[in-house]
Design goal:
The complex is a heterodimer of chains A (114) and B (113).
Chain A lengths: L3 E3 L2 E5 L4 E7 L6 E7 L5 E8 L4 E4 L2 E6 L4 E6 L8 E10 L5 E5 L3 E6 L1
Chain B lengths: L4 E3 L2 E4 L5 E6 L6 E7 L6 E7 L2 E4 L8 E4 L6 E5 L8 E8 L7 E2 L3 E5 L1
Parallel strand pairs in B: 2-11
Antiparallel strand pairs in B: 1-3, 3-8, 4-5, 4-9, 5-6, 7-8, 9-10, 9-11
The chains are: A mainly beta (114), B mainly beta (113).
């Protein structure tokens, strides 16, 4: 079955880079995602990467994918206090029903120290 | 509306009662998903609609849970004989047909006392 794992906590100083790591088990994943969740809020899609890519950059965000090791990372450059939130890694597989069902990790709580 | 809307935002109910949670997806999005997020966990898939039909309900935990989408737009998640273990945030997401980006609502926090 599918399983997505992340470390639970990360603490960084404002202005430093943050790197959040994730491992997944299903090699048939089509897309891998990073979502951000602030307290009391829903999930905000930050970025995603197709499984045949190894890197994607979007402003301060860099996603790296190592498909051989089933390892995904999210790097946030110049981390700001507003980046404090829980970050979820998720994989999607095209199901028999035609849905891109997401399997999420438990989330990494990022704390940014001013 | 601009995004996925879920009502109510909070719901407190007594054990054994029936509840309905509503999701209003982004206009034109044919795919609709329900997820459940328990405290300290990531969201878990419950059910997927393509149009009016429930194409995949494999994530529903038992037959107390049911969802409908009669006109292919608004969806209602129904929980009968609620139990304390049903307490969680219920998230709805929608996406255009064939699109892999799912847009989530703010969720309904259900508390069963």
């Amino acid at each position: 079955g599918e399983d997505v794992e992340q470390s639970l906590f990360l603490s960084v100083r404002e202005g430093d880079s943050s790197v959040i790591n994730c491992t997944y088990t299903d090699s048939s994943s089509t897309y891998l995602y990073w979502y951000k969740q602030e307290p009391g809020a829903g999930l905000q899609l930050l970025t995603y990467i197709f499984s045949n890519m190894d890197m994607k950059q979007d402003q301060r965000l860099t996603v790296l994918l190592n498909k051989k090791d089933k390892h995904l990372s999210l790097r946030i450059a110049d981390t700001q206090t507003g980046d404090s939130a829980i970050y979820f890694c998720a994989e999607s597989i095209l199901s028999w029903a035609g849905s891109y069902q997401l399997t999420f990790g438990k989330g990494t709580k990022l704390s940014v120290i001013p | 509306g601009a995004g996925v809307s879920q009502t109510p935002s909070n719901k407190v109910t007594e054990k054994g009662k029936y509840v309905e949670l509503r999701c209003d997806p982004i206009s034109g999005h044919t795919a609709l998903y329900w997820y459940r997020q328990s405290l300290g966990q990531g969201p878990e898939f419950l059910i997927y609609f393509q149009g009016t039909g429930a194409a995949d309900d494999s994530g529903l935990p038992n037959d107390r849970f049911f969802a409908v989408r009669p006109e292919g737009s608004v969806s209602t998640l129904k929980i009968q004989r609620t139990e304390r273990g049903d307490s969680a945030v219920y998230l709805c997401a929608s996406s255009p047909a064939g699109n892999t980006e799912a847009f989530f609502g703010q969720g309904t926090r259900l508390t069963v006392v």
